[in-house]
Amino acid sequence: MPPKIVDIDSHVLEPTNIWEENIEPEYRDRALRLKTDENGLEYLQVNGVKPRGHFIQGGLLGRDCSQGKDLERRMTPGMVTYGEALRALPAASDPGERIKILDAEGIDVSILYPTLGLSWEPECDDPKLAAAYARVYNDWIVDFCSSHPDRLAPIAHITTRDVDESVRELKRSVRAGAKGAMLLSTPFGGRAYGDGYYDPLWAEAEASDVPVGLHVWGNPDHAGSNLYPGLQGPEMAWWIGSMLAIDVIVGFTSLLNGAVFDRFPALKIVVLETGGGWIQYWLERIDSQYGVYGFKTPMKERPSEYFRRQCWLSLDPDTALAAEIVRFLGADRCMWAGDFPHADSGTSVVAELNENLSSLSEEDRLKVLGGNAVKLYGL
Q: Would you say residue 214 has pLDDT above 60?
């Protein structure tokens, strides 16, 4: 049997009616809904209200945008609706069409994450309602993947406002068929992921033997947002897209600072959608700081030792230094992701990745292409 090629982080475009049709009756009046404001701009209504700065920018949701097809025009607010994006790219919401894309690109398995789910959670301060939103999506994504279980792998969206709800939903979703969990890069409620409050969640992830991915999200309070107060729209897309990766690094580092990996030595963390060039600098820096101030932390080992034991990094196909990163970090710690169908995704991603990994041994290259993902996610 030939080695598998696995994209560990691509996305769906969720149909906007799934919450109204499937949420429990007591929450139906507060279901997520696509709305249009007085200026004709779409937004996702959360908990019955209009959220901060989260307009639906349909032009960002079609992969063809990144191929030189008038992305600037399509990013004009109101130019492309969410419904138009769905119709333009059926593979984002139809599993049969998705398989055609995978076949065309030579990808064996795609591990799937949400799109709308990357924006609503911080706006929902009702933990019970947030958990209800997550249940609807998780049921939908498991069903979406069920017709092609050997090609499509669902990841459960786990909310973090109430750790008991987090634990219940992780347990329920894994039983239903989820291959892992997604947490947004930074939690809400004033607690870091390293806080002992989240220990029941890490314990459940460890007991369920599924990886937890830290993913970027549309954070209106992202790193550096204080420098541009009130500017969260498409005009800030380059700045926001660049800075969101830092949120993931902060969230991951807080796990180290809280000695989570000491308490949960079998916990598996995947650091997603941050590229890869930062990892050597960051591990060397935090190791250096540990050498000076480590006695002031609860960590028992150097931070890089935890990473190489319990963490994995997602590389982008166009990472020019991918082979060097793999050599530094270790081939067992690296995977890759295409981000389909978002605007920064591309075509011929497997060919591009193979080119950037060409100087590696065949064994190491195949680990990054899919071997590691097959083992980690139980594919």
A: yes
